[in-house]
Amino acid sequence: MNYAGMNAGSLTFTASLVVVALGGPSVLDTFQVLQLSAYSSLALGVVGLAFVWGILGILSLGHAAFFGIGAYAYAILSIAQGESTFAVAAAILAPSVLAVCLGYFLFYGRVGDVYLSVITLCVSLILFSFMNSTADVSYTLLSVPLGGFNGISAVPPLNWPGFVGDFLTPEATFSLCFLLLAAVYLALQFLRGTRLGRIMASVRENERRCELLGYDPRWLKLVGFVISAAIAGLAGALFTANTGYVGPTVFDLGQSSQFILWAIAGGMGTLSGAIIASFMLQFLASFIGTSQLFNTSLVFGTVIIFFVYALPNGIVPSLQGLLRKLSRLARRQRRRPEVIGDSIKSTP
Amino acid sequence: MTAMIETVGLTCRFGGVVAVDNVSLKIEEGELRCLIGPNGAGKTSLFKCLSGQVQPSGGRVLMKGREISRFHPHEIARMGMAIKMQVPSVFNGLSVHENVWLAAARLHRGKALEAIVDETLSAVGFRSAEAREKRADELSHAHRQWIELAMLAACKPAIALLDEPAAGMTQDEMLRTVELIKTINRSTTILVVEHDLEFISLLARKVTVLHQGKIFVEDTMSNISNNAAVREIYLGKQWRMAQ
Amino acid sequence: MMNISRRNLIKTGAVGVLAAGVSPMLSATSVFAQGETVAVGSLHDLTGGTDVYGVPSHACMKMAIAEINAAGGLLGKQIELKTYDGQSDIKKFPQYAQQAALQDKVVMLQGAITGASREATRPVLRRYKVPFVYGTIYEGGLCETNAISVNTGSDQQAIPLLDWSFKNLGKKVFYIGADYNAPRNIGIWTNHLANQNGGTVVGEEYYPLDVTDFSTAIAKIQAAKPDYVHSCLVGGPHMAFYRQWAAAGMLKKIPIVSVVFGGGNEHMVLTPEETDGIIVAYNYFEEIDTPANRDFLARADKTMGASRPYINGIAIGGYTGPMIWAEAVKRAGSFDYAALMDALKTDIEWAGPSGKMVLEAKTRSTIQDMHIMQVENRKWKLLETQSQVRPFDFGGACDLLANPRNTEILVPKV
């Protein structure tokens, strides 16, 4: 059932993330903890995109803009204040505000799908160019130099709310990142099952029909767009807290296309798929970057082609399809003739 | 008494083409009106103007006495207008149940909502859970038409616009559709566009003929079918064959 | 009982969930302080947009490690080179730095050529106490005990080049640069050196890295009538400037000097008609005619093969980095971090293909010869050598012996 947000699968997936969050630190070494924390924050970024694209049908090619603004907001505020709580809040709020403004013009101005994708991409690239040109020492925000191409370095990690300098251990950060990922996943999955979520899905299926039923697709899209931007901002903040660095490349084409690749690989319309794909492809990128057996770009190109040709539906839907086929095969013996519109004689 | 829907000098241009030309039409509450006319007469454009999908180039549209010419489609829908499009417009990737649920969910909640969905689906013959879980794009053309009618009925509209509701149907299916429309008409004003004259004669009391964007004539079906001019512009060959 | 079994269940579950992803890593073991090898990391862009700088530097680094190993290793241990491909993706740098430090336990990491990747990598290596060797030319101002710069800051290039230019070309300079950190920094140097030499900066323009149309820039330069142009245009798109400059017939009229031209082997990509006469300053170029350099190039031909890249002033750092670090390790007598940091409190001297190099204790940057040279038919012609150019200490601001806790990049002020 495509509208059942909370089902056995999504609950199991949430539970797995929680298990990793709580059990991970006791079985992983420090490096793995750090690496997975960074991966999980990028996974969080792609969930927002998978939601807005897979559920609402809005392809935002500039998802990195929101991720990047969150990343910069966290870096600047955590350095300026020496405290990360407000920085995280601002990292969620700032991209949301941009999403409200941008979304208002895009959706209420009835900009077409293709133009919407291009405009969001442009916004991201404008931010990329702008941040690149802030190398001069006179570019500061809250007396933190923006740093241009070199970015902002030595960004402090998360601290316990209200306790300046009392930083979370890598293990605690790891647990927090995975719990947040689980919480956001569960919340979005829950939203999909609600009345609002189901109506949002109808916007993707047929926007005209949706508005002829009396729903305002502009408003629904705006809400979804802002939700995805807020999640991307949080992801940006966590990523920066994990790696201690932010630079203009968070806004570049590579960052946006990475999110899109993960969403495609995971499968349109599934949130868990995007998360799983993001982890798998990050591990792959990291692995081939150290193995030196193949050219990294070559491997990635092959992977993209593989997903487009062999698994056009993405990882999770393909697996689900396989399972369905198997179960159908098993049921074939006791199958009754299919009846549709049973009181009406069907068209011969 | 104010009319359910009224147009005053309604004009709709696309570039140089005048699709709807100074049309003044009045549909009273509870009426079941048929709109006929040859291809390109402006029927579909008129529907798009009425439902807010296209902004009129001139003239006014009034619904229950209130001007709606510049309203958005969702605002007009909220005032109680529902429309079945010429090409079935349903949520292809969603289940039959979900389609009707979405139509009813704007006005209803909880148990009442599920009851309406169940009742409406049963009325168009989707009784089994299996039939209701089918995706809309897996259905035949006729079934998709019924789903769209069901969605329309589930909205409990004040007025329904039906654009070729029996297109591509077999005789049985067409008769069934006539029954459905009559049922809907018990509580809803209906304006229907059709080509199938048998269908029209089964349904309509009053028929409006549209030609080149203008109202050509407005009369009862029997008078229309005897009107030589109408025959000339529209019915022509098809009419003689039906005779 | 209940509690214990539940906790086990959680652990097993976590392992199960993670197994797919992390299993390749669980097998990795620490190599430091056990066995016959120590690990050293190379973190360069080997693919993607900036691989033009990363690939030759990495190749030179491999050659250096091979030579150290062939000569019996370092302190009796063979060096294992761990390679991480930064993939021209800044996000990879801190992650690989963590992997190098925590998992592969490298005793030194070299690379992170672009300013952004350096800034992303540096704090990680500092936190995990892994010495960072920085092998490229850069904007200057790196002043941190953990960062060893074996190439030159822009000060070491700009001071000799612009002093020479004000003396030989004229007093009026027009500065044109890419709009990011290093060119901005070099712009400050240009102004500073103009003041010192009684010259004037008649124009200063910055262009984003993707600009390819320089007609306005050329018109502005023509209007300003400088004696020479100081260019800090960087990367593929900016090469268009040199084409358009030559096409406008300016190459023969107003000389161009640069501290970055040639870093991407622009003098070989462009035609001689577009580049002949451009003047640069580097610590190394293949045409240096000394026995040490001829020998180095012969060995490079042998280890890297005939199709090896041209070794320019950026790539050479890949070779000198491990060599100077090895000298320091020998001085320390141990791979231990504290011992190495102690050893670096005195100057380390080493003679390489470009002559004597001294890693200065105070700045942890390198004193070396600078060569002013000119393009002539896709080759470099030496104009003048300034011997043993010291890294700028920012008026005493960079003194790691007195202030070992500094990590900030120092920026020149006019």
UniProtKB/TrEMBL annotation, chain A:
<feature type="transmembrane region" description="Helical">
    <location>
        <begin position="293"/>
        <end position="311"/>
    </location>
</feature>
<dbReference type="InterPro" id="IPR043428">
    <property type="entry name" value="LivM-like"/>
</dbReference>
<feature type="transmembrane region" description="Helical">
    <location>
        <begin position="86"/>
        <end position="108"/>
    </location>
</feature>
<keyword id="KW-1003">Cell membrane</keyword>
<feature type="transmembrane region" description="Helical">
    <location>
        <begin position="172"/>
        <end position="191"/>
    </location>
</feature>
<feature type="transmembrane region" description="Helical">
    <location>
        <begin position="219"/>
        <end position="239"/>
    </location>
</feature>
<dbReference type="InterPro" id="IPR001851">
    <property type="entry name" value="ABC_transp_permease"/>
</dbReference>
<keyword id="KW-1133">Transmembrane helix</keyword>
<feature type="transmembrane region" description="Helical">
    <location>
        <begin position="47"/>
        <end position="74"/>
    </location>
</feature>
<keyword id="KW-0812">Transmembrane</keyword>
<feature type="transmembrane region" description="Helical">
    <location>
        <begin position="114"/>
        <end position="132"/>
    </location>
</feature>
<dbReference type="Pfam" id="PF02653">
    <property type="entry name" value="BPD_transp_2"/>
</dbReference>
<protein>
    <submittedName>
        <fullName>Branched-chain amino acid ABC transporter permease</fullName>
    </submittedName>
</protein>
<keyword id="KW-0472">Membrane</keyword>
<feature type="transmembrane region" description="Helical">
    <location>
        <begin position="259"/>
        <end position="281"/>
    </location>
</feature>
UniProtKB/TrEMBL annotation, chain B:
<keyword id="KW-0547">Nucleotide-binding</keyword>
<protein>
    <submittedName>
        <fullName>ATP-binding cassette domain-containing protein</fullName>
    </submittedName>
</protein>
<keyword id="KW-0067">ATP-binding</keyword>
<dbReference type="InterPro" id="IPR051120">
    <property type="entry name" value="ABC_AA/LPS_Transport"/>
</dbReference>
<dbReference type="Pfam" id="PF00005">
    <property type="entry name" value="ABC_tran"/>
</dbReference>
<feature type="domain" description="ABC transporter">
    <location>
        <begin position="5"/>
        <end position="237"/>
    </location>
</feature>
<dbReference type="InterPro" id="IPR003593">
    <property type="entry name" value="AAA+_ATPase"/>
</dbReference>
<dbReference type="InterPro" id="IPR027417">
    <property type="entry name" value="P-loop_NTPase"/>
</dbReference>
<keyword id="KW-0813">Transport</keyword>
<dbReference type="GO" id="GO:0005524">
    <property type="term" value="F:ATP binding"/>
</dbReference>
<dbReference type="InterPro" id="IPR003439">
    <property type="entry name" value="ABC_transporter-like_ATP-bd"/>
</dbReference>
